[in-house]
Amino acid sequence: MPQEDRMIGGITAVILAGGRNTRYPQPKGLIKIEGLPIVERNLALLRSMFADVFISANTPEMYSQLGVRLLGDALPSRGPMSGIFTALINSGGNDVFVLACDMPFPAPELIKLICERHLQQAKEGQYAATIPVFGGKPQPLFGVYSRTVIKDLEAAIISDKVTLARFLEEGNRTFFLSEDEIKKADPAGRSFLNINTPEDYESIIRGMSAFADNGNCINRARQ
After folding, report:
1. Those residues with Cβ within 8 angstroms of residue 150's Cβ, 6 or more apart along the chain or in another chain
2. Looking at the predicted structure, is the pLDDT value of residue 80 above 90?
3. In this structure, is residue 198 part of a structural domain?
4. Is the separation of the CB atoms in 10 and 50 below 8 Å?
5. Three-class SS of residue 13?
6. In whole numbers, what is the pLDDT of the chain averaged over residues?
7. Domain around 150
8. Which helix (H) or strand (E) holds 195?
C-alpha cells in the first residue's frame, strides 16, 4: 500500500508499553525482530499512517531516544485499561487507535480497515469502540476507542474491574468487526501475534525462518 494511501485523519495512535513483563525477561517492546525492537518497528509504521502518535509507558526512560511523546498512566496502573484511559484524555481528537507493544506484525491494511469502520460507525453515534475479532476472540489491544468511554474506563479502573474484554462486552457500545471481514485484510491474522513468553518469541522466529525458506524455494523454482 503506498504511504499516501495509508494516512488516516481524525484518529491518534498510541503504542501501549506499560505492561509488567512478568513472563518475559526484558521489556517486550524492546524485543528485536529482524534486528529492530518491536516498538521501533511499530512506531515507524504508525507514523506513516497517523499525524499524531505517542507511547504510553510507565518507564519512559526506556523510550526517550525515539523522539516521540511519552505518557505515564494518569491513574494507578491496572494494565491496558489504564494506558487506554491515559491515551484518551491526552489525545487531541476524539478517537485513539491502540496497539500493544508486543505485536510485531501489524498489517497497515487492517489498521486502515478498522479505523475506517470506526469513523463510519461514529458518524451514526452508535458505538464507542471498534474491536476486531479473530480466532473467535475479541482483540482489544488492536482497536479504536472513543473519548466517550473515558468515564466508564475511569470507574472500572478505580473499582479494579480491569478485565478489558468484559468491559467491552458489558454495555459499552462496542462494534465487533467480524473475523470474515478481518481476513480480507489479514487472512492469517499475523497482526494479532504477540509475544508473552520466550517460547512465543522462539515460535515466531521459527515461523519467520520457515516462511523465508519457503520463499527462497519458490524463487529458485522460478529461475
Report:
1. 85, 88, 89
2. no
3. no
4. no
5. strand
6. 85
7. 3-192
8. none
